[in-house]
Amino acid sequence: MGAAPAILLRDDAALRVFDTGQGFPIVFQHGLGGDAAQVAQNFPDGPSYRRLTVECRAQGGSGAGTTRPFSIAMFADDALAAADAAGLDRFVAGGISMGAAIALQLAARHPDRVLGLVLVRPAWAFDAAPQNMLPYVEVAELIRSHPLDEARDIFAASATAARFRTEAPDNLASLLGFFARDNAAVFAEVMQAIANDGPGVTRATAAGLALPTLVIGSGIDLVHPLATARELAGAIPDAAFAEVTPKAADKDRHFAEIRAAIGGFLDGHFNNQDQS
Question: Would 1 be classed as within a structural domain?
Fold first, then answer.
């Protein structure tokens, strides 16, 4: 990921901020439980673009701080503060899953700042606490009420895990990994709060977004339904939609296709532009 991250202090939370490249600016955020390494797998880093990624509170190497509740709005405010600190006036906003919800909120709340959108495997359309996020609440409640090993065993034997084992094994691997986190207790707070949250953007607001948009979805994924990606692409005027190989089918191809789709979109709309 190149240079060491900068540290941005927000309230009493020390957040790691990765700033790579020299070209057109993109603020690109990770998914729930992810980090800057996840972003690097999905984003076509190169000399043409400057990518800014904030590791959200209690994720990656960032501290949790004491401010509560955790929310998508909080994480969006943190990302905007990082953009301000980096001197980025206008930028493309993007992200994966939770990061896509953060980007959508930034575009809706700060239309003077956001020049384009890249929404990768969105988990939310417009409603808070969608059904597809319930497994995160289930995992969080187990972590908060049982010793970690016991909590993991209970979840692994659950009906939810049985369904995911058959229909979305990659999702299941991610969910089981949360029980092994060093900060599992505080991250359970994050999971529960974010899974019950939403992007805070209405369908009418999305219909008023007049900016280039790319939405990327894939199948074999119960947390990030392909239907949600299609719904967002249909709601935002003239949004481009790309369906990529499912991560559960071929990880390398999945990431390569996402990077290619993002690179093509950015080159087509923002190549040789500055942020003024």
Answer: no
Spatial separation of the C-alpha atoms in residues 117 and 181, rounded to whole Å: 31
The structure tokens listed for 253 are: 């191809």
Q: Is 275 inside any structural domain?
A: no
Tokens at 217, concatenated:
């979805």
Residue 117 lies in a domain: yes
Q: Same structural domain for residues 240 and 219?
A: yes
User: Residues in the chain, how many?
Assistant: 276
Structural tokens at position 72:
């998508």
Residue span of the structural domain in which 243 resides: 6-128+197-270
Same domain, 245 and 116: yes
According to the model, what pLDDT value does residue 273 have?
A: 59
Q: Where are the alpha helices (DSSP H) in 178-225?
A: 184-195, 203-207
Longest distance between any two alpha carbons in the chain, whole Å: 54
What's the pTM value of the predicted model, to 2 decimals? Answer: 0.97
| Number of domains the chain contains | 2
Q: From 122, 222, 124, select the one nearest 173 (Cα to Cα).
A: 222
pLDDT value at residue 272: 62
Q: What is the mean pLDDT of each run of 10 residues along the chain (276 residues)?
A: 85 97 96 98 94 98 98 98 98 98 98 98 98 98 98 98 97 97 97 97 97 98 98 98 97 98 97 57
